[in-house]
Model the fold of this input.
Amino acid sequence: MSTYSFLIRRVLQALAVVLLVTVVVFCLLHALPGGPARGILGPQATASQIAAFNHEQGLDKPLPVQYVYYLNQLIHGDLGMSYTLNEPVSQLITERLPKTLLLTVLSAVVGLLVAVPLGVWQAVRRNKPVDYVITTLSFIAYSTPVYFLGLILVLVFSQVLPWFPAQAPQGNSVADVLSQPQGLVLPVVAGAATMVAVFSRYMRSATLENLTEDYVRTARAGGTRPRAILTRHVFRNSLTPVVAMLGYYIPVLFGGALVVEQLFNYPGMGLLFWTAAQSSDYPVLLGCVLVISVATVTGTLLADVLQRVIDPRVKAGRS
Amino acid sequence: PSGSKNEINYALPANFTPNWIVPIGTPGHLNTNNASISQVLWEPLIAYDGSSGEIGWNKDNSLATDAKFAADDKSVTITLGDRHWSDGEPITARDVEFWFNLVRENKKSWASYSPGKAPDVWSSFETIDDRHFTLDFDRAYNQQWMLANELSMIRVMPQHVWDKTSDSAAVSDLDRTPAGAEKVWAYLIDAGKKISRYASDPLWKTVSGPYRIKSFSTSGRVELVENEKYDGGGAAHVKQINLLSFTTVAAEENALRAGTVDYGYIRASDLGIKKSFTDLGYHVERWSGWAVTYMPYNFNNPEMGAVFRQLYARQAIQMSVDQKTLSKVLFNGTAVPTYGPVPQGQPSAFLSDEQKAEPYPFSNSAARKLLTDHGWTMRDGTMVCTSPGAGEGQCGEGVEKGTEFRMRVLSQSGSTETDNMMSALQSSFEETGIDFDIKTAPVNSVLSQTGQCEKDDPACKWQLSFFGSAGSWYFPAYPSGDALFASGGGSNFGNYSNPEVDRLIDRTTTSSSLDAMPDYSKALAEDLPVIWLPEPDYQVSVIRDGLGGFAQDSLANFHPAMWAWTE
Amino acid sequence: MSSLTSLDGLAAKPERAASGTRLAVRRFLRNRLAVVGLGVVVFFVLFCFVGPLLYTTDQTHTLLQQVNQSPSGAHWLGTDAVGHDELGRLMYGGKVSLIVGLSAGVLATVIGTLWGAAAGYAGGWIDAVMMRVVDAGIAIPALFILLVVSAITTPDLTGLVLILGLISWLVPSRLVRAETLTLKNRDFVLTLRAIGGTHARAIIRHILPNSVSTVIVAATFQIADAILLVAYVSYLGLGVQPPATDWGGMLSSGMTAAYSGYWWLIVPPGLAIILVVWAFNAIGDGLRDAFDVRGRA
Amino acid sequence: MSAVRPPAAPATGGHILDLDDLGVVFTTETGTVQAVRGVSLHVAPGETLALVGESGSGKSTVALAAMGLLAGNARATGTAVVDGTDIVGADEEQLSALRGSTVSMVFQEPATALDPLTRVGKQIAEVIRNHRRISAADAAARAVELLRRVGIPEPEQRARSYPFQLSGGQRQRVVIAMAIANEPALLIADEPTTALDVTVQAEILDLLRRLAAETGTGVLLVTHNMGVVADFADRVAVMYQGALVETGPVEDVLLRPAHDYTKRLLSAVPRLTVAESGGPGPSGEPGASGAASERRADEPGAAPGAEPAVELKDVSVVFGRGKQAVHALKGVSFAVHPGETLGLVGESGSGKSTASRVALGLITPTAGSVTLFGADLAATRARARRALRAGIGVVLQDPVASLDARMTVGECVAEPLRIHRRKLSGRERESLVADVLDRVRLPREVARRAPRELSGGQRQRVSLARALVLEPRLLVADEPTSALDVSVQQAVLEVIGELQEELGFACLFVSHDLAVVQQFARRVVVMRAGRAEEQGLTSATLLHPETDYTRRLLAAVPVPDPVVQRGRRAERLATLAAGRTEEQG
Ligand SMILES: Nc1ncnc2c1ncn2[C@@H]1O[C@H](COP(=O)(O)OP(=O)(O)OP(=O)(O)O)[C@@H](O)[C@H]1O
Ligand SMILES: Nc1ncnc2c1ncn2[C@@H]1O[C@H](COP(=O)(O)OP(=O)(O)OP(=O)(O)O)[C@@H](O)[C@H]1O
Ligand SMILES: [Mg+2]
Ligand SMILES: [Mg+2]
Done:
């Protein structure tokens, strides 16, 4: 399959998935009892205000009509207005998404930079004390809830040892945030911890699998030194499954971002989503879900493309 | 820390983002923090608040200097002070009329509207001269109620800048026609939705308050700077106020510890480690609210409604609530036992002695006895109605034989204090023989599911509801309970209905008698329309030493102009 | 010719006959970390299910007279914010965490594995449709689904397990499908088909056992996730309702007392979660190695 | 052990490889396996030593021990000295310096021997740069040169290919190019040509020979093909049950074997009977091949009137579509009748395996029809098709891939019983499995081992056992003996023959070994580039081929007689040269 038609097909499938997501999410939202009006307007709102709200937001129309209307809006790039923040959802998201992206991308990059070599190292030292120690540490990292980890980080590295601020940089733009890199240290560490735990495991097992492959023996027979075998051959071969996993990890990263954002006072997408969820702010909720799902679908798509780059066999359709 | 004596960093409540400044608002934009910011920019006509420590008319921050009620309590004449907008124009009765016209024509979309209240209570607005006007009422009203709850809602807006329908349009007297008023309203509301333009839009540059906007970000940070043209009595002491928003209390506490906040708050449970904050140069102060906290009964619930309608049953339930211990232990002493509809955190003339005296003191055994005296028998730890009927010593009308005393609460999630209180209540109810199931959900979800309903509605499944982690109901200055407990009241979720109480409530707003409020307080403390619970403090403030000059307003407003560095 | 019959086996001196399972057990027992993990799990199972018989406490009534007490002879691990004995609570909450974690983890793994294997094996449009469903599922944030569910219903323990299981089977299904795609064209599967084996047999006897390491690793992560998720969902009101509790819930409520120095409210549940999750992962690792016939050279 | 020194061998001490009392023990779950015992042998520069012996006798183990590449569960004793360094005690650093430059190796299975993600040119260049300080560009140029040397067409382009883009033969040549990249003093080749068809095999052997001659490389060649030994080796060492039983110059060992086992081994070698090259077929009517062979197929003995067990009619198979489409089969027709064996021969990639898979219904043909036991496969429903298939035994080409690594050998063999004889008790099943293992000459103990723990030939016999356990009506065997030494091969073929007598099943026998086919199959189909080039009775077609293609195939088959083979080789090279000049002229 040529790269071109592959891309077209994948993008079409991705669109289908996003459409499916909107349908499911829309139906789920409207299955909620009570509707958002009372929640948004508070206990003091009167019945007529609630009716007016429902009318204004079109919530009194039949569900399919609402969906078609929503879809039509969506096609025109309009995500609606937030019930509570009286701003267009698209604007809210464009303001906050870059910050969250920065955080998640940094966490992911840092996480991978640590996880990948760690996994390889463990595979090489399989069943030696280092392997056991790192395995144990990564399990601990994995099993520590992010909020717990964040609290410990703040306690230790901000209160006891005043090395890093307990707050993420407070600027609004990415540039602002980047201008205070020391503030990013703790949030990024908290966000990267599970990433390290999970991906070092994947990398370890992929490397172990590859170490038993015949081509390793061939390379050894050619006098390639163990280190070079690892870096030149085993590493790349082990990376393919890890890359494939990366796409599916995006929602998890977003989930982590939510907690990290709360903990380190860094209002981003995760927090927006959480607040919207807490306050039944349907348009924001839908917008966030849409963005996250598009990000996930794009992530998997990118992972697929990346796999084709790394592994020429995938492109040729035999793996 | 702000470092400079010219600035103060104030922490807004966790997870709140300011999103409205316009003195008129549509539903959904109602929030005391928004209101506080708005009032610092555009002073109210009559600021009726607790900024001095007691609830009353704060004349320093009001545009009116006097309000004279007619002898028949059917009109009031108000005098404006000699004040000017920041652009130098005088503030006149025309500016008040502007607000009046807009609200009257658009009352349906006005957030604070409820039928029979403002602006319905005012039949006409008569300008006497630039600084005097008269408002006529549709009938006689209690002066204090009128002043504290209704007139205090009037805001004075710069008609000479705002009376238009687009940014570029010329200003005219559009508000004087209904159609014009609607258009101006729409224009202002629309402009109000553009948060990112708050700092730049020329509309918002003409202010009357001690501060003006320097910056306003959608992620929550607001910077206010002194309005140099301010000519009122409540001028700013500090040049710049920074309002900071926080994602969680924990994040805010971190900022406190890091010293980046001058005026913040901590969780009640952290009161035990007060010292760690005082060591950092803060003092800790409780900020109690003008509010009550309760769990409404759903009197129309098909399973338990009939039981709830029995006063003795409600009494048994109330007797099983140990408010004193709950307040002391679970809230670390930052909650006030409250036994009726009038807030008990502050002394007030509204509170009846009966309410104050705890009409149904905590006693599991008394509660149990009350139930067994009314035809209930304990079976496997749960009370069961064994003697149905409406007569003496029987369960009461509508309660069927074999009914088990089992109730279910839909309680708001996410608060440790609430979770603990529910656990404690469950334990205590069980002691009495009452089963108490707890189901939790986010507060919005709780509110959505706590609707007024008829017996057969599918939405009538809720029995008890709790949405009061931060207080269930914040009152305006005059704590009348019409929306809450009057038959058909907008927020009378459980359809409580008692003709006698209805009469008392009506009296609180219309009669000038000083007994009206205490009578109402006594009646509801005894009739138990809801389960009364301890009222938690609005917040436990942590204030930098040297910052003072103010009292914490129990109406939950903040007043930056009063803040001052004292040393 | 008969002299040729058993030529090449002479060099081999088998110790004793051993079945595949017995071998796997032996291999598992050789993995020290996994054995320790198994020990930890057994300990916690005993702790939570037998412990309450030996160390009896009242976990249904709050005792506001004795809240936040530090460890003492009467309360070995002190008391919590409503006066429950913390050690007893640890046992009580552990039951929920263990039951939910294990069942939800297993449920998710089973659903995911079957779905993924079926999709990968069927191929073509069936695969495409099944996988788009998974993609959509992955793309909808779990938080959202949990929120909606929490608003609609308050599940009991079984319901909770079902919900957690149903939102977390997606990634395992992806992994298993990828594995299936390569396995289904392997010669041993083709041979089976050529001699008339059923599809079910191909999946159950060949494809699944050969994906066992993927499945096991996924399963252990699922169990860990489920234990952590219970705590997370109690934020949404989806978790177990008082007086019941779970370790995650204990940890998150204890966390509010982090600065108050009530370490006994944080350390025990935190440690319990970490130990159990660690143990399940170690067991998973051991199992993977035990069943992995290939990677031993 | 005193080996007879070949006249060409230099004096003691000048050996490039010296094994002394080498022993190797494998530790497995089921106990230890003493795979190699007290093996002593040596290889002199420029000399080729062939290591032969029965499958599982430890040949590969010896080869790997000499490289220091034994599996992790192996323990070696004794010494293995390569160019003065004892491999047994050496550390990885020393070994790395040695491997690829002083000693290098060609592995048995080319499919997996190369890194799938690295271009082949780069992999060759890497070996060069491991040992020489030259620039990347120079190394790349040299890699292209090596590819040209091993006879890969368009080497500049091929160097940029990934392994999966090359055919098996090409991949094997890449491995050889890597092995000779630094002109090693010692080349160890473990069955370097098993996977290849005879023509490619001949070319590769020519290549290795030239290398030995030009650079004085000593070669240790592991093989089970006596023809290759005769063609190539100076001396021969024979292994049996982990020990050396005989060593000597190739003429002595092959023509005058001393040890019993060697004698048995040689007697088992299938010999290709060849008519005078270029002679006309017996029918004497070249060009009427199709009609002629079919007539012969209908002669007595072919169960006249019986319907064929499997029949392919005008079958075409296209893989992929568009530009990448591969026409693997083009209008192929043949039938296999009960009781007869049809041989399918042809060069690598000619479509043999594809044809057999079509016959099994594993590949749906793009055009044409397949009839299995009289039923059209395309028309039968799933359940009926499964029932039909109960009568089929299958041996697929790759013995590694066709066994599920997660099952024990016993479970693998028992699987068909579990599918089609569900009522059997565990004990009955076990005894059936034990019987069939006996039949393919495997010890019963292997039933408890994992496939990984067997030698290549042992695995292949496990596949065969699985195919036979159900007593099939049709046996489709794709290269069932390619990894077997001749003695076992003979035994196995006899078993199949006996069973066929007994059960009367039809057999589709795919092989690139013409001698085996000649001996074993009654009729033969010669495949070339997806077409059935010619078909007919084996006796006729292989003795008197009608096409040049078949003749060329036959000429490339080495015979296990060093003297005769030398003559054949000269002849073949001459005709090749002649052919080339003719083409050019
Ligand atoms: N990794 C291993 N673990 C255990 N036993 C092994 C291992 N590798 C080989 N063996 C055993 O060692 C013996 C020798 O194996 P080896 O591969 O050297 O045979 P071979 O002579 O090369 O056979 P073939 O001609 O079939 O390739 C066999 O019995 C085999 O079962
Ligand atoms: N799945 C496939 N996809 C694409 N091409 C294929 C596939 N299988 C086989 N081919 C191609 O079809 C042709 C015939 O292959 P086949 O395996 O039948 O050859 P063969 O005669 O068995 O060769 P060998 O002796 O090497 O086993 C080859 O060119 C091969 O590359
Ligand atoms: Mg071998
Ligand atoms: Mg083939």
The two ends of chain C are 34 Å apart (CA to CA). Strands of chain C lie at 12-14. Chain C has one domain: 32-56+74-295.
